[in-house]
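Minutes, project huddle
Topic: does the predicted pose make sense with adenosine monophosphate bound?
PN asked that the exact inputs be recorded in the minutes so nobody has to dig through chat later. Recorded below.
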Amino acid sequence: MISLEEARAGVLSGVEALAPGRRPLAEVAGTVLAEEVRAPTALPPFDNSAMDGFAVRAADTRSAPTRLAVVGAVMAGQDRTEALHEGEAVRIMTGAPIPPGADAICMLEVVDEEDDGTVILVHDPVSEGLHVRRSGNDVAEGALVFSPGTALSPAHVGVLASLGIDDVAVVATPRVGVLSTGDELAREPGRLPRGRIRDANRPALLAQLGRDGFEAVDLGIVGDDEDEVVAVITRAAETSDAIVVSGGVSVGDRDVVRLVLEKLGGGAIRWMQVAIKPAKPFAFGALAASGTPLFGLPGNPVSALVSYELFVRPALRRMAGHDAVDRPRTWAVATEALTRTPDGKVHFQRVRAERDEHGEVRVEVSGGQESHMLHGMAQANALAVLPDGPGIEAGGRVEVLLLDADALAPRNMVQRW
Ligand code: AMP
Ligand code: MG
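Predicted holo structure (tokens), as shared on screen:
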């Protein structure tokens, strides 16, 4: 057995960021920027009003209460180039450019309109710049806006759009082929004879890849047949950046994937027994012909998904250019005992994590813990990391990997801010 650290180090050093390419803004959320973005224009692009109200000269309000003549109006999208003179005001809506000569905004709510709106009564002096959004106070023209390596969020997309940038160079999104292997896996609908089962891994992995922002490609199911597996992997390598195969990597009689990988890897695909539970058997390496990284996951569905979390996802995130490749971790209190026995392995128990009213994260076992018990995985939102030893007693502290960004969101609770 090799340690999890060693196995992960081998995987992470065996992949590199994909080549960048230009993509339209609509496709870049979740990707990683591969160029410097400088601002072609300032944001805001012009001085404009932060409020609905009246553009005034602050000096004219110094002796407030005072009356000003309303000489015009400017709505968002319009521009008024005529200068404001002493004693004048212009009706202005949020986002409209500040007319020349004006230097402050009186909110609608703080003035009284008189004479059919031709005059306003300003009750109190306003200071220069009040409710004026200065050009460039968010982003200055020419400034470095985002650096290479930035993971682009929807807000980043909004900034780029505001700057009139239509496309940016980003690291390519890994295209990942997913293949299930096993003679027992049925393709046909309907009731199955004893011995045959449904394929859980491929749909689950495809769903997980999609959720994690990768491009998932369904490679289907193949039986435990060496030639068939070789054919599908070889074909998929032409169009995939990585390939994930589940099943057949153990030591059983029909574990052909192992043999196939020895053949296709030319010695570069390493088959491992990792000191973890679940997901002990694992294979990783580059295909000799194409250099495509290949991940061989155990067939047991929980093992396959845990293996994905510990090896595949971090590697794919690295290929996608991210430097944060792992799930967030947090310390939690075990509300019940998380039992295990010493066996030289790190255990990843499926747990349900919740933040209690004191802000403490609490975890409880989410269901059956055997590696075929996918239902327990479905109930889980975190994996508790149990180092080798006797486990964690009720009330003890345990580190958990959060599998779900919303894992610790308050549930059915009136949120007080
Ligand atoms: P293997 O890794 O091929 O030895 O399979 C280990 C266990 O996982 C066996 O019980 C298989 O039937 C089961 N298994 C393998 N692949 C899948 C799959 N795609 N979906 C559900 N169960 C699977
Ligand atoms: Mg099998």
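Observations noted during the meeting:
- Helices lie at 4-13, 154-162, 201-211, 226-237, 256-265, 301-319, 374-379.
- The first strand starts at residue 20 and ends at 24.
No decisions taken; revisit at the next huddle.
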